[in-house]
Amino acid sequence: EVQLVQSGAEVRKPGESLKISCKASGYNFATYWIGWVRQMPGKGLEWMGFTFPGDSKTKYSPAFQGQVTISADKSISTAFLQWSSLKASDTAIYYCVRKPAAAAGRGWFDPWGQGTLVTVSS
Amino acid sequence: QSVLTQPPSASGTPGQRVTISCSGGSPNIGSNTVNWYQQLPGTAPKLLIYSNGQRPSGVPDRFSGSKSGTSASLAISGLQSEDEADYYCAAWDDSLNESWVFGGGTKLTVL
Fold first, then answer.
1. I need a surface site. Which of A62, A90, A105, A122 has the fewest CB within 10 A?
2. Count of A-B CB contacts under 8 Å
């Protein structure tokens, strides 16, 4: 069974750094894109970006380029989403998603991780 | 303001057929396939329809999707109480700011 299991909820203060993770299992991690989708409280879904673990290629949404870093470690089949300086507006649930190997603009997101709630508050 | 436009809400009674629309433009729905996701209350989204009208294994055939021009729609027939959820359409946008874009979501209420 293909599964994406994310790290637990986090609480941070504005200005702090954070790295959350998504552990994949049940498939060849290197041959699918893996990325992140944000859902702010009571709001809709926003695609943030992907990485392709096979060659470390990344593709970011223009809205999130420079705001976060997406990476992956093939040796442990785990993807990461990282912030260097959090803002209160980063408070949201973050979902990791897998996308079939194809161009960045082809395919679909399946499965989804269970979500990681990030709360940024002073 | 989402790039793809969905009605914020929809409703129906058990057994009814409900459709949810998703309107876009040439760079997104007009040029690429559409996927639909279902988010049950308090849970992560789940793939419901991919490539305009394909159902992943395990998704009941009560759910169907279609696309025409720059619009897409999701139909749910034989509505059931467990279909009460938020539904999102998504497509790749080929414009200058290449990106996956979502609709704002439609909250489906089963009366």
1. A122
2. 62
Question: β-strand A57-60 against A18-25: which pairing, if any?
Answer: unpaired
Rounded Cα–Cα distance for residues B3 and B32 (Å): 14
Mean pLDDT per 10-residue interval, chain B, length 111 residues: 95 97 97 97 98 97 97 98 98 92 98 93
How many CA within 13 A on the CB side of residue A22?
31
Closest alpha carbon to B47 in B27, B65, B20, B28: B65
CB interface of A with B, residues 16-55, below 8 Å: 37, 44-47
Contacts of B2 in chain A (CB under 8 A): 44
Helices and strands: H and E segment counts in chain B: 0, 9
* pLDDT tens profile A77-88: 999 999 999 999
Residues of A in Cβ contact (< 8 Å) with B92 = 104-106
Alpha-carbon dihedral of residues B40, B18, B59, B33, nearest 10 degrees?
-100
Residue A95 has its nearest CB partner, among B32, B45, B97, at B45
